[in-house]
Specification:
Layout lengths: L1 H20 L4 E2 L2 E3 L13 H10 L3 E7 L1 H5 L2 H17 L3 E5 L21 E6 L2 E7 L6 H5 L4 H8 L2 E2 L3 E4 L1 H7 L6 E6 L4 H17 L6 E5 L1 H8 L5 H13 L19 E6 L2 E7 L4 E4 L5 E5 L27 E2 L3 E3 L5 E3 L1 H19 L4
Parallel strand pairs: 1-7, 2-8, 3-4, 8-10, 9-10
Antiparallel strand pairs: 3-5, 5-6, 9-11, 11-12, 13-14, 14-15, 16-17
Amino acid sequence: MKKRIVALLPLIIIPFALNACKQDKASLTYGTLIHQDIYSLKEIDNSELASKSKDEKEVFILAVYQGRYSEECQCWTTFTNVIATYINLTNEMVYLYNAHNQNDEVASLRINKYEDSTPTLYIFNGEKKVARFSYRNNGDKAIFEDTTAEAMKTRINRHLDKPTLYYVDEKYLDDHYTHDDSMAVLFVRRGCGDCRYEIPNVIIPYIKKHKTMRSLCVFDMQDYYDKANKESATSDDKMYYQSLKDRFNLSTYGDETFGYQNGVVPTIQFVKKGVVDDASVYFNDTVAKKDNGTFYVSNSYYSEERLPHLKYLQGARNYPTILKGMTLTEGILENKKGGYYWSQDAASKYHRPLLEAFLDFYMFGY
């Protein structure tokens, strides 16, 4: 009996040990397909850092410097070169942050502040600190000094999987939009409230639930919008922003079937060699009041006329697929211009299943 028990013990213990040691890696939220150098690296402030960690619960890489101490030290300058090389090598997004500017808004992240030039590197999953690397640690120094970025890549890859969302710029779209066999593109503006709702509340949770998705390009049009709306904007500035929306089929002028009004964000398209095969628009409905005092959606991307063209909604039965003309009973708010609009939380109950249907249909190898 003793021999039989001893022989069986390894069969019981070994699988348990393997399972105990296995850890799932989190997927980085954002990558970038935009070429980087030391001048283009994205630095974030306290508000942005708090939003990424607390509100949007992103998985992100944060490279931290120590104010004026780092600015006067070559170790930080060298590390910025490493970061730019790393981003171009891996297409993974890395943000810069000044530890000497931190306030109570980000105190929960426990980012080290030094009275010297020590650079540090963090990986966060929301507010949870996944990993920390410091120039003070001899075992980490190669991360900050290896200008091939291979050391940084090796260490980070132990903790992170590849992202699904990839920032792109106009040049990237010019090169790929009309040439790639297929691509999915999300058009947003970082200053757009609807975009700031859609991404953390719908898209990021969806990605976390489905890890084997195709990549989704993200084109931030905010800089073009800002330039077009400055007091000093020229007619060319104003026309260029609209021409950009026309060129990428966001407006009805650019695409009568899948464009909407003059072009709105957030819009997600599935594109085949420059031709929009399908699209989804989040929010951007118009609310009006009838003479009898009831409210309804007077205009929406989801209309009876457009529905036959939206492949991802064919056969849908569990939720409304036509929003234009729908009577509203909740979430009606008034603006100071005397008009009305639909609250994001109320509207999202109807828009979320529509967007998720698009993602289900196109993000898994269509």
